Amino acid sequence: MTAPLIGVSTSISVGKEPERAYVNTAYLRALQNAGGIPVLLPPRLDAAALGALWERLDGLILTGGGDIDPSHFAEPRHAATDEVSPARDALEVSLVGKALDDDVPLFAICRGLQVVNVALGGSLYQDIKDQTGSPIEHSQRDRRDQPTHAVKVLGEGTRLGRILGRLELEVNSMHHQAIKTLGRGLREVAWAPDGIIEAAELEAPERFLLGVQWHPEELVRDAAACNLFAALVAEARARRRG
Ligand SMILES: [Mn+2]
């Protein structure tokens, strides 16, 4: 059996010339090491092109990147909200809907988790420091592959706990936004020491929709990080359509 095709959302440069669509290679390497074939999804696709591409995908990764337009959760824009791309927001929100409609496994990372939450009607802190006063530095200045804060995972019947094989870990942190109110059908399954939600998954245990606020693609020397990509690829294989 050939390896599953996994759609990977791309970033779009905002306010820079030339405009670029791009993705950090760490995502691609982590996915390929887990046995998946990455298919980069351009940030602008009309419905017909997206539909044609979607038919061929077995799984999906929503990657990190700039902030989501807060109009998606009916809040005015905070001064710290930055790098907003309406095109990328629209594409990724529609991808969440497609993944749910067609039961396609979805693994969401950092901004990806926030997109999933917003697509399901949840809201975000637009700036953790300003809006929660947290003493934890979620926008780390250390290297991307350096863990900087702890995360506690909910052990009771969570997909995340099963995949990671442990309930306490140290993670990297490259986000200044986070989930405020949870979207419909989601369950929070991991937290930083300040209570910020660091992972969520669908309540329905048979559905693979899982998001983490940290960047496992940068932590692949740790088996727990690799397990996340391996779990997505295994689900994509198992649920392969057609
Ligand atoms: Mn964090």
What features would you describe in this structure?
It is a single chain. This protein is of the alpha/beta class and 242 residues long. It is built from seven helices and 13 strands. The strands form three sheets. Strands 4-1-5-6-13-12-11-8-9 form a nine-stranded mixed beta sheet, sandwiched between helices. Strands 2-3 form a two-stranded antiparallel ribbon. A two-stranded antiparallel ribbon has the order 7-10. The two termini are 13 Å apart. The relative contact order is 0.18. The model has no long low-confidence stretch (mean pLDDT 96). It binds manganese (II) ion. The site of manganese (II) ion has 8 residues, from loops.
User: What is the radius of gyration?
Assistant: 17 Å
Task: Report, as a whole number of angstroms, the end-to-end distance.
Answer: 13 Å
Query: Per DSSP, what share of the residues sits in E-state strands of 2 or more residues?
Result: 15-25%
Backbone structural class: alpha/beta
CATH architecture: 3-Layer(aba) Sandwich
Query: Strands across the major sheet, in which order?
Result: 4-1-5-6-13-12-11-8-9
Instruction: Sketch the topology as an H/E string, one letter per element.
Output: EEEHEHEHEHEHEHEEEEEH
